[in-house]
Amino acid sequence: MKRNANEMYFQLIALLLGFILIHAIFVTLVRPNAESTIRQQVERAAAGEPYIVPRSFYVVIKDIEQEACFILMFWAFAIMTYKARALLREESMFDKHLIAANEGARILVEDTAQFTASLRSLPQDQRNLLLPRALDAALLRFQTTANIQSANDAVSATCISESERLDSELSMIRYITWAIPSIGFIGTVRGIGGALAQAHEAMEGDLAGITSSLGVAFNSTFVALLISMFVMFFMHQLQLMQERLVLDTQGYCEQNLLRFLKS
């Protein structure tokens, strides 16, 4: 429960910091540069030069929809960084000799108490990690049933439960990857609606307004889809790390505990 509460607080703080940081960048850097670029193009058009729709990076990302997409991207990366650090901490347990069994040795039922005591002597934050929990579950099951297959089933059940938990914790990131392109489509609808509202100006020969609105429509979709692809790539990398953790835990238990058990 404490772990879940800490993660929830981290996510809320990360969202707040993302909003403050991204909004500050847009207010102080992006929008002033975009307005300057557009103003220069309008002045050239007023001077009789051909009007060219600006393709500046600042102009492409200046609208509110793109800002929201960048905030969500920051939030997703903060959550993934938090989870990646937790996974690296889990994987660090593979370097520890949690089961001190030599090659050729046999672990009998009466020997399980000392191995269980060794695991429970670990600090509390390490005992809650996947590998110690899987080893402890296997030893307890073997101590109770004196059956090697039952101990193997205990490892599998612990790993399956952890895999389902890790997968469920990706739900917020999956929501963000869905929300980013959705916000882009909202910008598309807003831009097209603005263009239609200025259709009468286009009929009079003034294309500046309708061109600007269509720019909002296409730019928001372009930026949102690009960010969504970027976030999804790292989300799948995180999911791969989670799957490897579970598989490596099962392999560690088989190589360092289960094969030494003797009923």
Question: In words, what does this structure look like?
Answer:
- This protein is mainly alpha-helical and 263 residues long.
- It has helices at residues 2-46, 57-60, 64-91, 112-120, 124-127, 130-145, 148-168, 171-197, 199-203, 208-256.
- The chain has one domain.
- The chain has ten helices and no strands.
- Helix 3 (64-91) runs parallel beside helix 10 and helix 8 (171-197) runs antiparallel to helix 10 (208-256).
Tell me the span between the first and last alpha carbons. 37 Å
Tell me, rounded to a whole number, the average pLDDT.
Answer: 85
Amount of helix: over 70%
E-strand count: 0
Tell me the radius of gyration: 28 Å
Tell me about the largest β-sheet: none
Net shape: rod-shaped
Order of helices and strands: HHHHHHHHHH
Total count of domains: 1
* Count of separate DSSP helical elements: 10
Portion in beta strands: under 5%
Work out the oligomeric state of the chains in this entry.
Answer: single chain
Based on helices, strands and strand pairing, what is the structural class? mainly alpha
Unreliable stretches covering 5 or more consecutive residues: none
Which key features would you list for this structure?
single chain; mainly alpha; rod-shaped; 263 residues; 10 helices
Short description:
By secondary structure, the chain is mainly α. Helix content is 79%, strand content 0%.
Task: Give the SSE map.
Blueprint: H1 2-46, H2 57-60, H3 64-91, H4 112-120, H5 124-127, H6 130-145, H7 148-168, H8 171-197, H9 199-203, H10 208-256
Helix pairs in contact: 1-3, 3-8, 3-10, 4-6, 6-7, 6-10, 7-10, 8-10
